[in-house]
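Notes to self after the Tuesday call (sharing in case useful).
The group wants a holo model before anyone commits to mutagenesis around the pocket. I volunteered. Ligand is 2-acetamido-2-deoxy-beta-D-glucopyranose. Logging inputs and output together so the record is complete.
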Amino acid sequence: MMMMKSMLALAALATSVYAQSVTIAAPAAGTTFRAGQHFTVDIAEAGTREPSQDVSVIVALTSCAYGTGSCDQFDPTEMFGTILYAGPYTPSHHAGTPAGDVEYYQNLTLKVPNNFTPGAAYVNIAHLALTGAGNIPILDFENIIVTVKA
Ligand SMILES: *[C@@H]1O[C@H](CO)[C@@H](O)[C@H](O)[C@H]1NC(C)=O
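Result:
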């Protein structure tokens, strides 16, 4: 009986960990931006949002244009370059999005800095949520590689 209970607790924990992570629904990986251009970052959340509680996100644009010029040079969870947004994450439900799309999301309109170094760059995101009955703080990361031209 005790065994059964702890297995159920583990299953519940696994579910909530899954539910709290975010994905970058837009822009698409490989998108090219001009320095100074505005763009939309669509931060989406899959599945049920219970029992996790969203707190905040940080969105950065991190240049890979040094050394080899490749984004393989560093871990995007350990370096956030230019911070484009650091604030509340409050995704809302947008019913009627095309089938297969995630219906909970928040769009942020951000700007590539005018003087941003041309070349490959990460759009990297860190997302803070509270999860489970114990309100465990969890940080998850998501990133895509884009190109910035002058
Ligand atoms: C959010 O951004 C996506 C991708 O650009 C777009 O398809 C969608 O219509 C936007 N939703 C709202 C509510 O602005």
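Two things stood out.
The domain at 2-149 is CATH 2.60.40.10 (Immunoglobulin-like).
The CA atoms of residues 46 and 99 lie 13 Å apart.
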